[in-house]
Amino acid sequence: xxxxxxxxxxxxxxxxxxxxxxxxxxxxxxxxxxxxxxxxxxxxxxxxxxxxxxxxxxxxxxxxxxxxxxxxxxxxxxxxxxxxxxxxxxxxxxxxxxxxxxxxxxxxxxxxxxxxxxxxxxxxxxxxxxxxx
Length: 133
Fold this sequence. Notes:
Elements: E1 9-12, H1 15-26, E2 29-34, E3 39-44, E4 47-53, E5 73-77, H2 81-90, E6 95-106, E7 109-119, E8 125-131
Parallel strand pairs: 1-4, 5-8
Antiparallel strand pairs: 2-3, 3-4, 6-7, 7-8
Family: Belongs to the bleomycin resistance protein family.
Organism: freshwater metagenome
Keywords: Antibiotic resistance
């Protein structure tokens, strides 16, 4: 398995609920899973993410309050954003920001992407994107 040089690890309040969300709704695959504590290493289109159930010896530096991950969003490039949007809507998952087009200035000029924002079950903000070609 190839490990990315930087991989976010999210402490989650309910491991199974979060794992189901990331796999069934967003489209991640489980690359590795273990118990004690519940942990999964996930992959999607080159993106990698770790989920670990909150427990006494976890990496907490302060009290975790909902929504978790305030001040950060995780941008994840998905192969077919419209398919993900349909899955989320059919499961009644509320969108933080609906599917829209955004343009960003880069060193190579403007870059466009379709994006939607959704919070995971613990409130972590995900910015799901697909490039506009």
